Amino acid sequence: EPEVTQTPSHQVTQMGQEVILRCVPISNHLYFYWYRQILGQKVEFLVSFYNNEISEKSEIFDDQFSVERPDGSNFTLKIRSTKLEDSAMYFCASELPLGGDIQYFGAGTRLSVL
Amino acid sequence: TQLLEQSPQFLSIQEGENLTVYCNSSSVFSSLQWYRQEPGEGPVLLVTVVTGGEVKKLKRLTFQFGDARKDSSLHITAAQPGDTGLYLCAAHSNSGYALNFGKGTSLLVTP
After folding, report:
1. C-alpha pair distances (Å), A78 with each of A5, A34, A37, B66, B101
2. In chain B, % of residues over pLDDT 70
């Protein structure tokens, strides 16, 4: 069964460093999303991406964040200068248009900022 | 942002018991989704409810959407240890893209 894959599963970084979280969405999907889940808190929407541009972003998704689809398969989330409070699970999701509004989630990347 | 309140926050029961968890809001939704999340995994969609008063069954799981489309419940019959996990309700934002999640109900079913 097709699935969304995320790498790495765990990323440890120093505060102020740049990190890139990678996602390979399901191949025929066209909508892509990033969410995060801080430990003990709810899953929060960060950004949605369609047709090579951001379609919606939350207040969390400030200038420190960016997304990119550099080729036909990868979808990345970059955090330019990580802060301690960026420590969280980051989930990528993809969706097929007219597919019943079902977002398929990856297993997540655990980001630990020290 | 629509607020989804889930209750209870934690639930620990024995195998074979029945349980109900709730998802409530003051907002009206065109649809509402239930997800299950296991440790170290992303959320997995269980069901989408669309019509007020709708009831959907998925084996031992029964999902109900309130008549006013503001709330939903998930009932599990004869719970099994494999049902252990975090149950999340979610609804699309007004833009239709983002999913807004509740905090979830963490269920533990012990043998």
Report:
1. 17, 11, 16, 40, 23
2. 98
